[in-house]
UniProtKB/TrEMBL annotation:
Gene3D superfamilies referenced in this protein's UniProt entry, alphabetically: 3.30.1490.270, 3.40.50.11290
Domain of life: Bacteria
Membrane-spanning segments: none
Pfam families, alphabetized: CP_ATPgrasp_2 (PF14403)
Protein name: Circularly permuted type 2 ATP-grasp protein
Native source organism of the sequence: Zobellia barbeyronii
């Protein structure tokens, strides 16, 4: 039976995380590679098949809204992990803590004193024109002055081996349940390696999440619930998983009622007051009396109860303004302004199409750039210039000219690759990294992350809705 062999593995033109440009194994992967090379191709396939079956049995599925067939899919877990050394992770940890602290101060400022506008750090009209800016929150301060309790920033590693923050996710960051379940599955796949390598655990995420939520209430034993849009939501598995692991009730909008600006959960024993809501639906759906009048997902009166300080919402409404990709370009200035520090984790160079000079550059160089719609997510509303047609480029140029505020552009970056199992061999596939941060009494970065992988050869789109998969992320103690 043929053993796993990496002699023909291609590291040309990309930064590979397991092998250097001379095909020498990097130190973090040495022990794992020794284990891998003892396996036959047949055994590796068998382990991968068992993983696929385990995901299905656990119900680790999601819906793709754009799929008219309405088929539930698993977020394919490739069993070759991504391995990150301790010093590398420490840098990521420091950079994310810095970024989240500054962004929280920024959100507090734009809804209150607005000093950042007066000092001309960021254009006021850019924030006020964001679809996620909520005028109803002006003058409001959330419990403990924390807006972004849960963050899932997306990072990439470029061809230079340097990490860059690609975007921030502060509204309802998803995917953490896959990080946790991926770990449980991989511990059964390679049990001996976790102890030998000294992989940091992630199992206490839900305990830390519960502590973070309870921190927002002054009650000794606050009632915490997870608010879901329902079973047809793409991330329903995650909502139910987190509620179960935290020992919190999973509720829909119809399970809550507001009386005298107090939120109650309807139970078989009558009404029970709710203190903290971890909501997994966007701002516009939480309260039909204030936002989307047609919404059947939220609870009438919920927003007013929040404004009155009678319930905590996580994440706070209005945080999505930071997810706006036009705001992203200003984050280096935001960090410097609020913290007096240089950015630890750099942004990708970004051109703002709303600014005339940048817009002209983007239009002239669109064939070399990645153009993104500022309020889109999931890999949609995007043009990858080097892989696009002249017709597609022209369509985006027209869109940019019509609504420049809605677009930014960035240079094409060769995302790093990690070996990934394909139909008949192992090949490098592009990856990104989504670490999770919890902001309670301090900012904790979970020592692991969801690594998303573009399963299609040559693709740099890692989103699950676009056919991406995932890997377990091992952070080493040394």
């Amino acid at each position: 039976m043929s053993k796993i062999d990496f002699t023909a593995y291609d590291t040309k033109d990309f930064y590979d995380e397991m092998f250097d440009e001379n095909n020498n194994v990097r130190p973090n992967y040495k022990m794992f590679l020794e284990r891998l090379e003892k396996l036959s191709h047949k055994k590796l396939k068998s382990l991968q098949y068992a993983t696929d079956r385990a995901q299905l049995s656990l119900g680790m599925t999601f819906n793709v809204y754009a799929d008219n067939q309405g088929v539930e899919r698993i977020l394919h877990l490739d069993i070759i992990p991504r391995i990150i050394g301790n010093s590398e992770w420490t840098l990521l940890e420091r950079g994310l803590q810095q970024r989240i602290k500054a962004l929280n101060l920024f959100i507090q400022d734009i809804y209150n004193d607005q000093k950042v506008f007066k000092d001309k750090i960021i254009p006021k009209e850019m924030i006020l024109s964001s679809v996620s800016y909520l005028k109803q929150l002006e003058g409001f301060k959330p419990p403990k002055d924390i807006w972004c309790h849960i963050t899932g920033s997306d990072l990439i590693k470029g061809g230079d081996g340097q990490y860059y923050v690609l975007e921030d996710n502060l509204r309802c960051p998803s995917g953490v349940s896959y990080m946790l379940e991926n770990r449980e599955i991989l511990k059964r796949t390679f049990p001996e390696l976790f102890e030998q390598l000294g992989v940091k655990p992630v199992y206490d995420y839900t305990h830390t999440l519960r502590d973070t939520l309870e921190y927002l209430s002054d009650k000794e034993k606050p009632v915490v619930v997870v608010l879901t849009p329902g079973v047809y939501n793409a991330a329903y598995f995650e909502h139910s998983y987190l509620a179960q692991q935290m020992g919190a009730e999973l509720v829909e909008g119809k399970d809550l009622i507001v009386k005298n600006d107090i939120v109650y959960m309807i139970t078989t024993n009558g009404l029970q007051r709710v203190d903290v809501i971890y909501r997994r639906l966007d701002d516009e759906y939480i309260d039909p009396l204030v936002f989307n009048k047609q919404s059947l997902l939220g609870t009438p009166g919920l927003f007013n109860a929040y404004i009155k300080g009678n319930v905590a919402l996580v994440n706070a409404p209005g945080t999505g303004v930071v997810d706006d990709k036009a705001v992203y370009a200003y984050i280096p200035r935001i960090i410097k302004y609020y913290l007096g520090e240089d950015m630890i984790l750099p942004n990708v160079k970004t051109y703002i199409c709303d600014e005339e000079q940048d817009r002209k550059y983007v239009i002239d160089n669109i064939h070399n750039l990645v153009v993104k719609q500022t309020d889109a997510s999931g890999g949609y509303g995007m043009l990858i210039g080097p892989k696009s047609t002249k017709k597609e480029q022209q369509e985006f140029i027209t869109k940019i000219k019509n609504k420049p505020r809605n677009y930014i552009a960035q240079p094409m970056i060769n995302l790093s690759r990690v070996p990934t199992i394909t139909d008949d061999t192992i090949e490098g596939r592009h990856v990104d990294l989504r670490p999770y941060a919890l902001y309670g009494d301090d900012i904790k970065i979970i020592p692991g992350a969801l690594t998303r992988v573009a399963l299609t050869k040559g693709s740099i789109v890692v989103n699950s809705s676009q056919g991406g998969g995932s890997k377990d992320t091992w952070v080493l103690n040394r």
